[in-house]
C-alpha cells in the first residue's frame, strides 16, 4: 500500500472532515469517499453550484456559510484548504483537540504509486510546472498536472491513472504535509512573500519552502537555484539526503545546468549532455532561463531525448495572466501579467521587457516593499497607472521617479489612459504587485477585464 495509507478495514467508519469546498477540497472529498471514509465537507463561505452538485452526486454530506463544531470536532483527521490560515478559530480548536490536520496533497499522496515531480518557489513555479508538464506530455509520458493548477491532485488520483504527476506546491500546501515524499523536488527561488502567514519571519518562510525535500532519500532528486542567497544559506546547514542538481546563470556547476555563451548546458551523470541557445527558448527573460533550466534538468533526469526537449522548450505557450501577450495596437504591445500579485513578480516582468513601459499596478497591498523595483522603474517605466482603491503606498514609492502617475478605478479606464500615454514601440504592462479583491473577484477576473478592454480599443 503506497505512502502510509490505512487499509480498507481501517478506513471503514473513520470520519474525515474537509475544510473548504473549492477544487482542492472537493477533489479530496471524492477521493476520501472512494476510499471508504465517512466524509463531511464544511465551508465558511458559499459553495459554488457546480461543486454542490458534485458533492451531492457522490452522496457526500456538506455545509456552507458556517463551521458546525459538533460536526467537525469529531473527526479522526481534517484536510484543510491551503487558503485557510492556522489562526482561524475552527483550526485552532481542531488542533487543541489533537486532531491531525493535513493538506489535500498529503492525503492524495497516500493513494498513488506515480512518480511525483514537485515544484515550488516564490516566483516562476506555475510557469516551470506547466513547461515541465508540456515537455513530458510531448515526449509521450502518461502525466498529470496538479497542485495550484487545473484539477486537484486528489481528484486525479481518484479518477485517473497517471504514471507521473507534475505538481505545483505553494508554501501553504507544504505547511500541512508531513509524510509525503517528492521523487523529484524543485526549488526555484525564495523571496519575501506571504510573510503575514509566517509571523513576519523570513526564516519561517524559508523552512516552509524547504519542506519540499522532507522525507527524500538518496534515491530521490533535488533541483535548486545555486544563485539564490536564501537557498544557499539554508543549504549550508541543512542535511539533505537526496541527489543534488544545482542550476546557475552565474557560474558552471556539476550534475546540473549552467549558462555558457548564451547557451543552457545540462550535464547530468545519467544522460548525454544537453545544450540550447537561450534565443531559441519560447520563454524569454532572465527568470525564464532559470525556469527552463529547472524543467530541462527534470527532462534529462527522465532521459527524454535532446531533440524532444529542445522542440518543447521552443514551442511552449505561456499560461494565461502570466506575461501573456494580448495584442499589438498601433505599435504598442499590451501584456497581461495579472498573476503578478507580489513585488518580486513585477521585478521579473519588468526585467524581461526591453522597451519603454507604461505600468498598470495596484490593488490590495500586502505590506509591499517596492524599493527593489526602483532601479528598473527608473530605467524603463515612463508612467504608472494605479488600478485600485488605495494607491498611497505606490505613490509614496514612485512619484519622484516617473513622469506621470494616474489613479484609475476600472480596467477599461486604466487601458484607455495607458493607450494614450504609450508611444509606438513601447509596452503597456498590467503587473499589479497586489491582490485583486478591492475591484475584482480574482486575478483571473482582473486579467480578463484588462484583455477585454484592450480588444475594445
TrEMBL record:
Which segments constitute the Mur ligase C-terminal domain?
321-434
Q: Which of UniProt's keywords are assigned here?
A: ATP-binding, Cell cycle, Cell division, Cell shape, Cell wall biogenesis/degradation, Cytoplasm, Ligase, Nucleotide-binding, Peptidoglycan synthesis
What general EC class does the enzyme of this chain belong to?
ligase
Reactions accelerated catalytically:
UDP-N-acetyl-alpha-D-muramoyl-L-alanine + D-glutamate + ATP = UDP-N-acetyl-alpha-D-muramoyl-L-alanyl-D-glutamate + ADP + phosphate + H(+)
> What pathway is it annotated to?
Cell wall biogenesis; peptidoglycan biosynthesis
Q: Which residues form the signal peptide?
A: none
Name the positions where ATP binds: 121-127
Q: Which GO terms describe its cellular component?
A: cytoplasm
Which Pfam family name is an example for this entry?
Answer: MurD_N
Q: Does the keyword Ligase apply?
A: yes
Q: Where in the cell is it found?
A: Cytoplasm
Q: Name one GO molecular function term.
A: ATP binding
Domain annotation Mur ligase central: ranges: 119-297
UniProt record, GO biological process: cell division; cell wall organization; peptidoglycan biosynthetic process; regulation of cell shape
What HAMAP family would the database entry show? Answer: MurD
The UniProt similarity line reads: Belongs to the MurCDEF family.
Q: What's this protein's function?
A: Cell wall formation. Catalyzes the addition of glutamate to the nucleotide precursor UDP-N-acetylmuramoyl-L-alanine (UMA).
- UniProt name for this protein: UDP-N-acetylmuramoylalanine--D-glutamate ligase
The upper taxonomy is: Bacteria, Pseudomonadati, Bacteroidota, Sphingobacteriia, Sphingobacteriales
